[in-house]
Specification:
Blueprint lengths: L1 H19 L4 H13 L3 H14 L3 H13 L3 H14 L4 H14 L18 H25 L5 H27 L2 E4 L4 E4 L8 E5 L4 E8 L2 E5 L4 E5 L3 E3 L4
Antiparallel strand pairs: 1-4, 1-7, 2-3, 4-5, 5-6
Helix pairs in contact: 2-3, 3-4, 4-5, 4-6, 5-6, 7-8
Length: about 240
């Protein structure tokens, strides 16, 4: 009798847990596509937003950007496509959408430093792997012959030099990937850029949704950002980074 009660309790607990579980990633994607096809773009953006919350992916951000753009959320759309490109620089669809959106909204692209430009060629993880593997190859080919008490072959010296060169060349890109994490985008139309981090401060200018800026400081509910034309304080919920942490 006790075993039967225990079994019933376990079955009931499993049913409760399964009933309380949210929709799967496939289900969220299906709902997003269905509502997008019916023209309910705001709801579609909600479902695609839950998709990238569960599992961030370049394709997921691409879909979210399309839904946000169709629902009139320019800033959110540009942010989503930028995040798609951050995860996968080879996402040509996201790049084309960004070019179209910026032309339509008369917005500029983020201004990159020289060491940030190569960081956009491949993904951040790819640069990290390339730098790590090339360094270990160089170190191994330099130290292993001495450890084994064997003369260094010409090919191993050349390969070690190549590995070291690749590692050194990857450093600026890795640094650039780090500094690019401070780039963000205005997500609220007409966001007030203020002289100080208070609601009563004088407004320097108003920024359009989708305009790029660099975050330099945080104070309370405000962030200090710098655009190509001005600098000042924005409310934190009006600005989002390309790489959320």
């Amino acid at each position: 009798m006790m075993k039967r009660n225990i079994f019933s309790t376990v079955v009931l607990l499993g049913f409760v847990l399964s009933a309380g579980a949210g929709p799967t990633l496939d289900e969220l994607f299906r709902r997003g596509m269905e509502t997008y096809r019916t023209g309910d773009f705001a709801t579609s953006a909600k479902w695609f937003g839950e998709c990238v919350t569960q599992q961030p992916s370049s394709g997921g951000w691409q879909n979210l950007g399309l839904a946000e753009w169709q629902s009139g959320q320019v800033g959110e759309a540009i942010l989503a496509w930028e995040r798609a490109g951050w995860l996968d620089p080879a996402n040509h669809a996201a790049r084309a959408n960004l070019q179209f959106a910026r032309k339509a909204a008369q917005l500029e692209s983020p201004i990159l430093e020289w060491h940030e430009i190569p960081s956009t060629w491949v993904s951040v993880n790819a640069w990290a792997w390339l730098g790590g593997i090339s360094l270990w190859i160089a170190v191994g080919l330099i130290t292993l012959p001495a450890f084994l008490r064997r003369p260094r072959a010409t090919w191993s010296q050349a390969l070690a030099a190549t590995g070291l060169a690749v590692f050194l060349l990857s450093l600026p890109a890795q640094i650039g990937a780090h500094t690019r994490t401070r780039i963000g985008f205005v997500i609220s139309p007409g966001a007030a850029l203020r002289l100080s981090p208070t609601h009563d401060a004088e407004t320097v200018t108003r920024l359009a949704a989708g305009e790029p800026a660099r975050r330099e400081a945080i104070r309370g509910n405000f962030v200090f950002v710098r655009t190509s034309r001005s600098a000042g304080w924005l409310e934190r919920d009006q600005f989002a980074l390309i790489c959320p942490r």
